[in-house]
Amino acid sequence: MTRRIQMRRLIASGALLLLGVAGLHAQTIYRIVGPDGKVTFSDKPPVDAANANTRTAAGKPAPAPRNEGNNSLPYELRQVVAKYPVTLYASVGCAPCTSGRLMLQARGIPFTEYLINSGNDVEALQRLSGASSLPFLTIGGQRIKGYSEAEWTQFLTAANYPPASKLPTTYRNPEPKPLVTAEKAAAPAAEGAARGEPADEPSRPAAAAPPPDVQPPSNPAGIKF
């Protein structure tokens, strides 16, 4: 009788052990190495996966978190971005442009960047700003030529951007892109030349229209956005 009870207990223990093993296989276990070298295990990836050496228990790198753009921003910051979007016009090798970009990044300002690299880009910039000097910054409808940390700070603060970064650690600004996108018209032009047809006059590049001026109701400084 005692032997039967012992056998039943052994069978029950084995069943529980198999259930535990099956549970381990049903979920991913992450091996997380902290900045101090301490190793921990968890069934959830770390909050800041970009700054942590994270691998699954099988030794494979953990999937990187997705950047969901403005949808990942805190609610208040998302409202400011929607009302007064920030756009930077810059070029490669422009020292003031680099200073302005670093200033926006340090303060945690979400912004879109356009690169001025071609003659078409310069023409489009002149139509937007009335000049070809860089950097050129827009905050809503407010246009700022040149870089001045004090001036940029004043306008960003007036637009209710937070003084310190509130961006999620996984947020990344969109990659810079050309101001003018070249149209893929090479193939049709080549076919027309083969038939002896005159080449069409190139169309002028269309530049993005600046946002309309909006006057905030409570703005004693008279700054336009």
How would you characterize the overall build of this protein?
A 5-stranded mixed beta sheet has the order 7-6-4-5-8, sandwiched between helices. A 3-stranded antiparallel beta sheet has the order 2-1-3, with no helix packed on it. The chain has 6 helices and 8 strands, in the order H-E-E-E-H-E-H-E-H-E-E-H-E-H. Strand 4, helix 3 and strand 5 form a beta-alpha-beta unit. It is α/β, with parallel strands linked by helices and 225 residues long. Among the domains are: 37 residues, no CATH class; 114 residues, 3-Layer(aba) Sandwich (Glutaredoxin).
Summarize this entry quickly.
Strands 7-6-4-5-8 form a 5-stranded mixed β-sheet, sandwiched between helices.
pLDDT under 50 segments (min length 5)? 19-26, 48-57, 64-68, 183-187, 212-225
Q: Please identify which CATH superfamily of the domain at 69-182 we are dealing with.
A: Glutaredoxin
> What would CATH call the class of the domain at 69-182?
Alpha Beta
Biggest sheet, strands in spatial order?
A: 7-6-4-5-8
**Residue-averaged pLDDT:** 73
In terms of quaternary structure, the protein is single chain
The tally of beta strands, per DSSP, is 8
Could you spell the SSE succession in H and E letters? HEEEHEHEHEEHEH
Helix content: 25-40%
Overall 3D form:
elongated
Indicate the CATH architecture of the domain at 69-182: 3-Layer(aba) Sandwich
Portion in strands: 5-15%
Taking all Cα atoms into account, the compactness measure Rg is 28 Å
